[in-house]
Amino acid sequence: MRNVKITLIALALASGTTVAQGKALREGDRYMCSWGAGTAARAQELKLAGVSLYAARQKIQRYKFDKSWMRMMAMGITEQTYDSPSRLKPTAVRASFYEECVRYKLARK
């Protein structure tokens, strides 16, 4: 049953990606979605490895970010990831986050 759910999620993500690619997305938005997806995937890796939220926050604080908005965004994404009961693999979390972010950005236009 679990494999069926994962397969359905993957198919939904794949079909949604092709629809989203048909519309224009700014390079900055694409970068933000990609960066956020990577952050969510890393947070999921830490969560599945048994690292506490406190330790994950400490790792974020030690990391040097390129842009000023990234640190707080990384904190928020990490907290949301830890609050979620999801046990999906990090690659699935990355794909899901990216798809939802692109969908959100396109809906705002």
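That was protein one. Protein two is written in the same sequence-then-structure order:
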Amino acid sequence: MGLSHLGIFHTVIGVAAIIAAIISLIRRGKIDLSQLSGKIYFYGTLVTSLTALGLSSVKGVNPGHILALLIVILISVAYYLYAKKTGNNRSRFIENFFLTFSFFLSLIPTVNETFNRIPVGHPLANGPQDPLIGKTLLVLFVLFVIGSILQFRKQKSINKVV
């Protein structure tokens, strides 16, 4: 597979963050920063995005760097809303959406790298333009849209109760 030490660290932390997000989404219907799984997602994603800036086979700034910076901005704003705008209000809609959107964006390079590396010697895909990657990302995008709608509806009902 040929991963550097930074690449291995990046991958391990990134996998932990993705697992934490999935656990949080299944248990709570959102990435909940008040729970351990939400905290692991936040800090793991922050570290993974920042280490991604040091990983590139191309010189200079590339789309992967821009994506990593966008993810850092999304989770930082979500954390700010969580910490400073407490209570069940409109801020929760943005917080939930930004965290879920950051998770979806994190899956783009994850799917690409995984499908182009595994299984070793006979990867599932032959580059980022492979139709399998496109179809997988389309399914994940549809799940993201459906999940976002469900989160919005759930938060709307929570806000009405309080």
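The radius of gyration is 17 Å. Keep this in mind for the problem set.
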